[in-house]
Amino acid sequence: MFKKIITVASVAFMIAGCVGTMPEYNSSNSNYIVFKTPSFAYADAGFVSKANSETKVEIYSSGQAIMRLRITPSQICMSKLKCMSANQFNTQVLHASYPADTLKNIFSGSEIFGGKGKQETANGFVQSFGSIRYIVSGNSINFNDSSNGVKIKVRSLN
Fold first, then answer.
1. Sign (positive/negative) of CA torsion 98, 104, 105, 109?
2. What is the pTM assigned to this prediction?
3. pLDDT tens digits along 94-151
4. How far apart, in Å, are the Cα atoms of 19 and each of 8, 16, 22, 54, 84?
5. What element of type H or E holds 92?
6. Could you say which of 2.50.20.10, 3.90.78.10, 3.10.450.50, 3.30.1330.60 is the CATH number of the domain covering 24-156?
């Protein structure tokens, strides 16, 4: 009897733990998203959803999710790849020289690299340094690193 109670309690805690880790997204916007790196390229309509401490990016083609990306404070998870720290993700997918918060900041439309080369514009800002050009303007985000072959674009469809 005692063993059965322990088993039921353990299962209940595991289920509650899984449910508790699912964030409640505050916003979800439809976008045209380009996510291109030296190892892969995705471009199509999708969604960028934001919770307090997490961002989820999904790209669809013909109604099917072709890429899912989940950015949390402790890791980045991408479909077809294992979850890894932001630094590991940058090394394997983007570029090892990028700070850990680069991907999160790009999909949030926040400054990158500590604001390096930042110039305010009428409806956003531009950061330009080395081979990187990053533009946040109105409802669009455009990150381009020409020497490392990384391009990320997010343009609102709303």
1. positive
2. 0.82
3. 999 999 999 999 999 999 999 999 999 999 999 999 999 999 999 999 999 999 999 9
4. 17, 5, 6, 16, 21
5. helix 86-92
6. 2.50.20.10
